[in-house]
Every structure is written in structure tokens, then in C-alpha cells.
Amino acid sequence: MKKVFRTVLIVLIIGLFIGTLFFIYNKSKAKVEVYDTKSPEITDIIKKTVATGSVVPRKEIKIKPQGVSGIVETLFVEAGQMLKKGDKIAKIKIIPDMINLNSAESRVERAQINFEDAQINYNRDKLLFEKNVISESDFQKPSLAYRSAQEELKSAKDNLQLIKEGVTSKSDGATNTIIRSTIEGMILDIPVKEGYSVIQSNTFNEGTTVAVVADMGEMIFQGMVDETEVGRITEGMNIKLTIGAIDDFTFDAHLEYISPKGVAENGAIQFEIKAAVKLNKKYFIRSGYSANAEIVLDKKEQVLVINESLLEFKNDSTFVNIETEPQVFERRYVKTGLSDGINIEVLEGVKKGDKIKGEKMSKIELMKEKKKKRDAENKKEKNSDN
Description:
- The chain is of the alpha+beta class.
- The chain is about 30% helix and about 40% strand.
């Protein structure tokens, strides 16, 4: 019994030893690497650049008080409302400057005194003229002084009224206290409210914006293009415009301006571009919508292309690895053409049907590939049986 047990034990030890040797041998063997292959395709290739920016009205006007400062007494409109040229926007209540007001009141008083004095002289000489005591030439002087003093008094009163109310008695209703639209369009914004103080626009001050009015029927795209691509675009190019808020439609645009001067942004030089947008009545574009403009720089139709990741570079030359036998590859020089950043045109070195070495396949990918081949073979056998 002991002899049998000893024999079994020896057999197990020998078997374990052989198994260990076999395991070590398999581990030491070089693993077979399998690479995926890709074939060239015939397709169109388009090189384009994308400019980011926004869509804004071509005509956008800031309406400011002209000639008057004061307080917004009444607002006649609200944001989003359509206006015609000349429509009322707001009424300004004038808060007169005390120095100017005091000067105007003093002028009225002086004019009143001069008028009363001239009137006394006029009435006296008129009576003498009617009694033929003085000649007509002697009467002309007090008559002229009277009319002059009368006009000066009226002018002084009008000036005082203008300072107080912004309108004169002879202005026939015309006043700069009423702020009116200077163009036809839509009110985009009213940055003031009733009771706000506003300042007139003049040489030394931009003035307070009462309203922003724009013509929403004529929109343009404003964006930036990198200096590496600005040399490839020209005025007149067609653009495809994608607006962030309208994701189901692409607008056509026409490039009409490229800035002659670049600006530094995020460490790169950018150039401003503008393009006229062709509107669609189905969609309303609001001012300031963000947008991306695709500009086609070059295009080739129905050419042989491969994925750029299949290329290898050495010195100034470009190569690919062509499969000559299953998983046997030969390095081959290729001449390339237009690239869109993903695919690249092949001019020489590769033909349709060639298999080009790609990335190394993982175990899961190998299993999927084998399953795919088995399914194809089974389908082929099934079709042949039928």
C-alpha cells in the first residue's frame, strides 16, 4: 500500500514539474501582435476653418438727449417694440442750471426796464409827432429804439422759457425735451427708467443712452479668424453660419470685411471678419446670438483619402505600412495632398484596395473580429445551401 502511495506521489510531482515547465515556456514565448488594417476611400475632402463670434444688427443706434439734461419724466415705449423714424421714445423734464437760470432771469429784468424806458420815450415823441411839433426823422429814432427793446424783451423771455421748459413760444411745438427715434427699427434696450437723471450729448460728454434702436432686418456676423488662416480667405467668400440658439437650421452668409489689423487674444493674433447674413422669415434672430461660421478654404471631389493617423513621418518624408501578406507589412513612401484635419488626400504610393497598418488590436477587438468573420462565413454557407 505504501509502495502504491509513493508511486502516485512521484507521478504527481513529475506532472507538476512538467506543467510548470510548460507554463514557463508559454510565458517566455513572444506574444503575437495583431494590427488592424484600413483601406483608402474615394470621397470628397473639404478644408475649412471655423470663426466664432455673434450675430448683430448692421444698424444699431444709441439714442441720447440732444441739447438738454434733466430727468426722464415719461417713457413712451418698451424693449421689443417697433418704431418708425421720428416716433417718441421719452420726455425729459429739464432741471435748469442755476447759473444759466439766474443769468436768463436777470436778462429779462434788464430787457423789461429798457422796454419800459423806450416805451415812455416812444409814447411822448409819438404825441409830439402827431401835433407836428417834431419831424418824422426825429420820430424814427425813438420808434426804432422802442421796437428794438420790445424784441429784446421777447427774446429774453423766450430764452428763459427755453432754459426752464426746453421750448419757446415761437417754436410751434418743436422741443428737444422729447427724445425721438432717428431710425426705423426695434428697441433692443431701454437702460433708463422714469425718474432717472440724463445728461445731454456734447463735445465733452457722450451723454446718457435713453434707448438702443436697431434695424433687425439687416444682420451681420462678427467673428475672429486666426492669423494662420486669414491669408486663405478673401472678401466675397460664402459662409455657412450655425447659430447656437437655432440648432436645426444653417444660415448662408457672405464675407464682406476682413480687418487689416490683428489683435492679440489668448496669446494668438486674431483678425476680425464681418459677413452679411441671409435671413429666413421662419426664424427670428435676436441681437447678440452666438454663432460659428464655417469658411471653406479648399475642396476636392472624389479623391483617394486615408485617415491621417495611418501616416508615419521621418525627416521630411511621409510613409504608410502596406500589408503584403496577412499581418506582414511593408513601409511605402506616399505623397499627400489636401487635408481636412482628419482625412488626407493621397496622390502617390497607395491605391484603392490596399490595406494599411493601423493600431494594434486588443484581445476584445480580436474576439470581435473573429466573431465577425465566423458570422460572415456562416451567412455565406447558409446562402449557398439555399
